[in-house]
Write a structure and sequence with these properties.
The protein is 34% helix and 14% strand. The strands form four sheets. A five-stranded mixed beta sheet has the order 5-7-6-8-9. It has a two-stranded antiparallel sheet with strand order 1-2. The radius of gyration is 24 Å and the shape is globular.
């Protein structure tokens, strides 16, 4: 048995890998507590499928028949007449489990051209609201800055209180910013309207995917794109030159770094060496020595 820990948090277990040969013994040990394996005798052709699921008669998906039958019942009885609701509410209605649909959305069942969770199931993913701190009144007309991690957010808030550079400092909360970016509309309303939105996060592949994915959602909603806060990234590259950390991610496409503009090439070299830089390198002790983020 192998344990897969959370990246940079070895004290947290992300996944347990069990050898295939040990599965029968473990099923016997935990009899009645593990889900039953899919029924290999299930006849997909015998079911009257809703139009959205007719592909199941000729194509396979790695989803339990019981889940498929529950989805089918919903589509046949209610389908598109329902109001759009949060995905967890719809999941509870269909499966009696508020988290089940979240797990199924990533399967081949929802591949392009098959089931659509918004159009067919009339539900939407609701991101967690963004935490943010209003800047000084003197900075109310200035841009907004989104920070990936909590410690750096706190330090930039302290700095902004003194230097008055941003109308608000937003806590992106890592990956959650991708689903929650449209909550920026609430912040825009509080500061007097939409304005430039800058982002600063870790220099690793996921740290660059987050703002770029969020930016696509924002632009689709007619909101400003997310821009890199280049001053912060320049300082991170400079201060972190001798403090790089190993990166577990596969080296990304070089195009991922294009978003960084003048900092793109150093980032490509960093990733090519399987290294990363944590944004916490730009901390309070460094910020308090500055007069401005020029």
């Amino acid at each position: 048995m192998d344990l897969k820990t959370v990246r940079y948090r070895p004290y947290q277990i992300e996944r347990i890998v069990i050898p295939f040969a040990a599965e029968p013994r473990l099923r016997e040990l935990f009899a009645g507590k593990l889900p039953a394996p899919p029924d290999p005798q299930f006849d997909f052709a015998s079911v009257k499928w809703a139009p959205q699921l007719t592909f199941l008669t000729s194509e396979s998906v790695a989803v339990a028949p019981d889940d498929l039958l529950k989805l089918n019942e919903f589509l046949l009885q209610k389908g598109r007449t329902k109001s759009v609701v949060p995905i967890k509410e719809r999941s509870l209605e269909i499966f009696g489990d508020e988290k089940r649909l979240d797990a199924l959305v990533s399967t081949s069942l929802f591949r392009t051209g098959r089931l659509n969770w918004l159009k067919d199931l009339r539900c939407e993913i609701i991101g967690e609201p963004l935490g943010w701190k209003l800047g000084p009144v003197e900075a109310i007309a200035y841009p907004i800055l989104v920070i990936e991690n909590a410690a750096t957010w706190h330090s930039y808030c302290r700095y902004n209180a003194e230097r008055k550079l941003f109308s608000a400092i937003v806590y992106g909360c890592g990956n959650r910013f991708m689903d929650s970016a449209t909550y920026l509309t609430d912040i825009f309303q509080s500061v007097g309207g939409a304005r430039r939105t800058f982002y600063f996060g870790d220099l690793d592949p996921q740290g660059l995917r987050i703002p770029q994915t969020a930016s696509k959602f924002l632009q689709t909603a007619g909101l400003p794109a997310v821009e890199p806060h280049l001053w912060s990234y320049r300082q991170l590259l400079m201060l972190g030159a001798g403090h790089r950390q190993p990166c577990d991610d596969e080296p990304p496409s070089p195009a991922l770094c294009d978003w960084l503009g003048e900092c793109a090439e150093p980032a490509r070299q960093l990733f090519a060496a399987n290294q990363r830089l944590a944004q916490e390198r730009i901390g309070w002790e460094f910020l308090q020595t500055l007069t401005r983020l020029d």
